[in-house]
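Reviewer 2 asked us to include a model.

Predict the structure of this chain.
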Amino acid sequence: MFTLSLENPLVMLYARLIGWTLLGYILGKLLPKSFTTYLGKALLFVGVPISIVSFLRQADLSGWIVIAPATAWVAILVGAGLAWIWIDLGLSDERFSKLSKGITAREKAIENRSASDPASDTALEYKSSWSGATQGSFLLAMTLGNTAFMGYPVSLALVGPQYFAWSLFYDLIGSTIAAYSVGIALASRFGSVSGGQKKPNPFVSMAKTPALWSLPIGVGMRFIPLPTVISAGMNTIAWTTVTLSLVMIGMQLSQLKTLRNVKTALTCLSIKMLLTPLVVGTGLMFFGVTGEPRMAMVLQMAMPPAFSTLVIAQAYNLDRDLTVTTLAFGVVLLLFTIPIWLWLFS
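Predicted model (structure tokens):
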């Protein structure tokens, strides 16, 4: 049982998650939209790299830490597989409905159609709720989890800096690389680029990600003694970045407009944030991964979809409404799922 006191790490986490995100939401309504862009770039190119180096100096890299990125890829494949099964069931149900009642309805409509209405044939065409764009957004949400800006604060609060490396390796070698490989591949398969725009090169995008460069730098700097002032300054920047990350998430939430396809979004989040962590987290036990390392990875698996899914959805003309809805509901759902993982896996 959990005791609800101010010293409880879960209570402190919720106070920070709700408080700083709410502040960001208010600021997002008051400040120009460009401010969110500037804050995001400052965190991406300055705050996050320094945080990675600082936390890696405190992290424990012993043990089979290579399991972390391997787990990330397994979770992505399991989630995508479950999602594809659900999509296939939905398409099969639509095809069955079309065969059972669509033929009769079309015959009646053709008989009653007026000769002066040439557009009536178009109105009778069958429209699927699982369009290519919707399938792309559904699968994309399974691939890109918010394992950095939201996963880092949650992991640091509940698991601690000592095991932060497990979350870090899960994010950088798992989620980040998957975003620029599997994520872009899915978007290209189910979407399209408007006008004469060029599709982004995934290798160039990865090369421009400072966090990936910070990983080897942070590992190398573990063996370099630094003056106390510099070490303390880096630590301050690191924890400030964690706070500003939550503020930025609130600002991004304030800019979301339309919430539609709620039923599809909740199905997507159930697979992403509940079923996949439960299946893969339980499977880790059979490989001897338990305790804090497993908790760190389960929390990363259970993160809501990343805001970069919206960027990719817009760039490739995927289902933007579904993407926005999964982002908004995912952040709220996280507040209810964290106690479940603590109860099952801590």
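Residues 9-96+129-345 form a domain with the Na+/H+ antiporter like fold fold (CATH 1.20.1530.20). The mean pLDDT is 84. We have added this to the supplementary material.
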